[in-house]
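retry 2 of 3: previous attempt timed out while embedding A1CAB. Reduced batch size to 1 and resubmitted. Inputs unchanged:
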Amino acid sequence: MIGFIGAGSIGGAVITGLVKNGFNSDDIIVKGGRSNRTEILSDQLGFQVVKKVKQLAETDIIFIAVGADALNSVLKELKEIAAGKLIVAFTGSASVTHLKQVLGDVKVAHAIPNTPVKVGAGFTGITYSDDFTAEDKKKIGSVLGYTGQLVEVPENELGILGTVAGCSPAFLDVFIEALSDAGVKHGLSRKLAYDAAIGMAIGASKLAKQSDLNVSALKDEVTSPGGSTIRGVAALEEYGFRNAVIKAVDAAENE
Ligand SMILES: NC(=O)C1=CN([C@@H]2O[C@H](COP(=O)(O)OP(=O)(O)OC[C@H]3O[C@@H](n4cnc5c(N)ncnc54)[C@H](O)[C@@H]3O)[C@@H](O)[C@H]2O)C=CC1
Ligand SMILES: O=C(O)[C@@H]1CCC=N1
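retry 2 succeeded.
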């Protein structure tokens, strides 16, 4: 049995990814926030909703998916039932050190999923406290594995990994939207422009994943000598696209 505290954007995405990809919703209990968002999701997915953190007492793993503002009050309630459980927090500020400080002698992990977990295509970075055994990690993997890739990193790399994989779906969405705008500017219908931009992003990502070539060489394959693509690449460089992406990551990293 697993529990969730918070089912907003990322909690809801992970729960949806689990259930849509075969995890039994009878084995999920969720303590939601003040709105009726959790009940609405429960009507769709069939998991149990509870009102108090202590009603998660029967679970083995608890995922915390509240924002930084609610973290400490949630941890205070959780402390009463946390003994013997594996606690995994998605909250940005929930470092392993902080979780241990508040919860005491409990196995804790800090994970940063991304929204594609919702369709089982997520990329989640995770840092475990030192007392996690291989068996404990396997247990977490056997759950989060339903939502996509799970990669363990040391805590000093989790933040930047969370930016490169966790914030970037929004960056890619902006790119796709801008590409569609350009298609519409040149006469495509909005629907066809979105279909083309999204279809391209899926296809190019699949090729990058499966190809022996790195993305730089894949770019070279598109840029025919004297052709249209290299003119577009030159314009991207002229307008600072690469630097804009690096600056976006810098901005996300700096509080
Ligand atoms: N949205 C994303 O793609 C990702 C978000 N995160 C982190 O996860 C945390 C949550 O982010 P979002 O899901 O985007 O925010 P959100 O605001 O959509 O979700 C937070 C949810 O927690 C609920 N909540 C608040 N207090 C609660 C309580 N005491 N008990 C139960 N539920 C409670 C709220 O009602 C809300 O539904 C943040 O720290 C964020 O940095 C991490 C990875 C990805
Ligand atoms: O915007 C945020 O704070 C979170 C962290 C990763 C994705 N969204």
